[in-house]
Every structure is written in C-alpha cells, then in structure tokens.
Design goal:
Blueprint: E1 6-11, E2 21-26, E3 32-33, H1 36-41, E4 49-55, E5 58-63, E6 68-73, E7 79-83, E8 89-95, E9 100-105, E10 114-119, E11 124-130, E12 135-141, E13 144-149, E14 154-159, E15 164-170, E16 175-181, E17 184-189, E18 203-208, E19 214-220, E20 226-232, E21 238-244, E22 250-255, E23 261-263, E24 276-279, E25 287-291, E26 298-304, E27 310-318, E28 320-326
Parallel strand pairs: 19-23
Antiparallel strand pairs: 1-2, 1-28, 2-3, 4-5, 5-6, 6-7, 8-9, 9-10, 10-11, 12-13, 13-14, 14-15, 16-17, 17-18, 18-19, 20-21, 21-22, 24-25, 25-26, 26-27
Length: about 325
C-alpha cells in the first residue's frame, strides 16, 4: 500500500502500558487506516509515540518511554531500523541542508534535558547538547535551532553549524511553541497552571534571530489564561493558538506585528480546546485538530475550513497528538 497525499496521526497510546500507533488519513478523506506501523511490520511501535518528522521518503518517529527513534519509509511505513539509547525523546527537527536531525530528550523527570544531534547518512548520534528541563518544541530557522524548555522560563538557541549552545533567553513560564516570522522568532509560553504552584498567566515573546535581542513581550490578562499550540497562519500575517481558560477558551487568532501589550482574547474562532492543532501545508491548507478524549479509547481528528467550520472527522488510535503531512 502506498501512503501519499494525506497525513499521519501519531497516537501516543495509553501511558505506561500498551503501544503508540499511527493512523493514516488520505487528504480526500477516502481512506483511513489504523495502526499502520504495527500491521506492516508485525510488531508494536512502542510506548509512547510522541512525534514524527521526515526528509524525502525517510520518516523519524520519536517513541518517548521506549527511548528510541524509529526509521521508516514514509510511503510504505516499512521499518528501516531503530536507534536505541535515547532518554525520553520528544520532538524531532530535520535539517535538510546539513543532513542532520535534532532530537529533544527530557532525559529524566527531575533535571535538565538535552538535544541529540544525529547524522542522517549514518543514522548515528554524533553529539549531545545540554539544555533545560523538558525540552519539547523545536524550531529550525537559518543556522539556528530554537528549543522550548517546557518546565522553565527560558528558551535555548543552538548554532547548527557548530552544534553549540549560543544563548539561553528569558521568557515567561513554560514555553511550549515556536514560530519563525521574517527574521524573528516568536515564543509562546503557557504560564504555570494552578496545580503546579502559584498560577501565572501565559505570555508571548518576540526575538530577533540576528541579535537574539527581545523585540516585544506580551502577557495575557488573567492568571488562568494558558495558551498553547501556536501556529503561523498560512497568510503569514497572524498566528493561531489555543487558549485554556475559564473565559473565552478555544481557538484564537492574533495579528502581526506585535508590540508590548496585554493580550485580552475576545470571542474564540472555535470555542473548544483540542489536544493539538496543525496546518496542512498542502492542498487547501486546512487546519487539523486532534481530540484525545480520555486517553483510554480511540480519539478523533477534525478538519476545519477557513470559516472555522468542521469539514469532516476521523476516528484515530488512543491519544492522537502530533500530525505529520505528506504531499
């Protein structure tokens, strides 16, 4: 079976037991296949499937609790091997220019994480770069890799030519997503939830990639406003993000450029918070949102049109999270 013109949903699977899976959804909605990796390779993917990236026909799947990276053929989902020995890998960024991949590793639940550099030709680890606790979201822009250290108030910047840490930049509590805009990087911070101590509001920060200086800083108005999943709009003139809050929770748009100000989210475009969201960069560039439900039963993936109406929905595996698109 050939897998093109669609997208993979990375289903995390039940935490601590069982396996993650991959759901294939054709872009025209005509075909949905569950647990493709398991069926094709006659073995489980592993616990917990965290994220997926690719270069050409080569796919890289980070499997968190299993401490490994699966190499797959993206068009057939046949396994091309496994890189073992990773410590709670989370996100993957692929540098096609330099033939490298960067994997964020939490390492432990009580200390600093790291970025592991992988040579895509040999598919071996070549370097480890220490960063902060719970490094998660990654962004490659120019010759820099930006790392959101999820349980801190700073992001790390790595020079991808020398693969060295060049800066730790102070932001708000719990940075969770990154986007590039012109010669800048925007950092969205979720703030600290009430269950983790003194609750703090989310914030948004803009940095120059040239000087690494802060250009703008925006705080959300209320302590219980926790934004996540920042995505650049296809138009390039606004960002989209989700807001977890007692008021105006859901999907929001914020126009560019930013200035120092307080963010007061109005009526959401969609009054619902999903597990994750992602733009399909191909076709009609629709928005895909995943709903993990109770993480014990099958979840769902939804597609929205540019009027923010649901076009269709698909059953997935347990815990649908990251989405990876194929042309």
């Amino acid at each position: 079976m050939n897998y093109t013109h669609g997208f993979w949903v990375v289903n995390e699977g039940p935490f601590g037991a069982g396996t993650g899976t991959l759901t294939w959804i054709a872009r025209d909605g005509s075909r949905v296949e569950q647990d493709v990796f398991g069926r094709v390779n006659q073995r489980p993917l592993g616990n917990i499937a965290q994220s997926m990236q690719g270069l050409g026909n080569l796919g890289l799947i980070a499997v968190n609790n299993a401490g490994k990276l699966e190499w797959v053929n993206l068009q057939t989902m046949v396994s091309e091997g496994t890189l073992q020995g990773l410590a709670l890998p989370s996100a993957v960024a692929v540098d096609a220019v330099r033939g490298k991949a960067y994997v964020s590793e939490w390492v432990s639940f009580a200390g600093n994480g790291r970025i592991t550099v992988i040579d895509l030709l040999t598919r071996l680890k070549v370097k480890e770069i220490p960063v902060g606790p719970f490094p998660d979201a990654l962004l490659l822009t120019g010759s820099q890799l930006w790392v959101a250290n999820g349980d801190t108030n700073f992001v790390s910047v790595v020079d991808t030519q020398a693969d060295t840490l060049i800066a730790n930049l102070v932001v708000g509590d719990r940075p969770n997503s990154l986007v590039a805009w012109q010669s800048n990087v925007a950092v969205l911070c979720g703030g600290r939830p009430g269950w983790a101590g003194i609750e703090t509001a989310g914030s948004l920060h803009l940095f120059s990639t040239n000087s690494l200086q802060g250009l703008a800083s925006n705080s959300f108005a209320l302590p219980d406003q926790h934004p996540k999943d920042m995505e650049m709009m296809p138009s390039g003139n606004a960002i989209l993000y989700q807001l977890e809050s007692n008021q105006n929770a859901g999907l929001h748009r914020l126009d560019l450029p930013w200035t120092n100000a307080t963010v007061n989210p109005g009526t959401p475009l969609v009054p619902r918070v999903f597990y994750h969201i992602a733009w399909d960069p191909y076709g009609e560039r629709s928005l895909v949102a995943t709903d993990a439900g109770n993480f014990a039963e099958a979840g769902k993936a939804y597609r929205f049109n540019n009027q923010w109406a649901i076009v269709d929905s698909f059953v997935t595996g347990i815990g649908p999270g990251h989405v990876f698109f194929l042309p």
